[in-house]
Amino acid sequence: CGAVLGCGTPLGSEADAETLTQGGGAEEAKALLAEAGYDGTPVVLMAPTDLVALATQPVVVSQMLRDAGSTVDMQPMDWQTLVTRRAGQAAPSEGGWNMFITNWMVPEISNPIANPMLNGRG
């Protein structure tokens, strides 16, 4: 399901969801990165090591990014360090970050006002 506000909720919509659930894979991603002028700058991916539910996901995502032509700097750390660092907005070259992986339950994301993915705070 590609509903940003949760599948099966009153605000859950799958309009244009194919942009989240389908694609041309690594080859299409490589072409899009080249078209965008990606210069190989490393993508800093924070990877929690102490939460079993999240520990393997950054490994998979980092490989997918590499397959697509990205340079990945996966940085392992405990969850508390990750959330502390996540609060900062420094550039990756100054101790900041680009990505981290987490999971959400539908009640946490079904309200667009409270949805952490839509709050625009970086």
Automatic annotation (TrEMBL):
Domain of life: Bacteria
Domain annotation Solute-binding protein family: ranges: 24-106
SUPFAM superfamilies: Periplasmic binding protein-like II
InterPro entries documented for this protein: SBP_5_dom
Protein name: ABC transporter substrate-binding protein
Source organism of the structure: Glutamicibacter soli
Higher taxonomy: Bacteria, Bacillati, Actinomycetota, Actinomycetes, Micrococcales
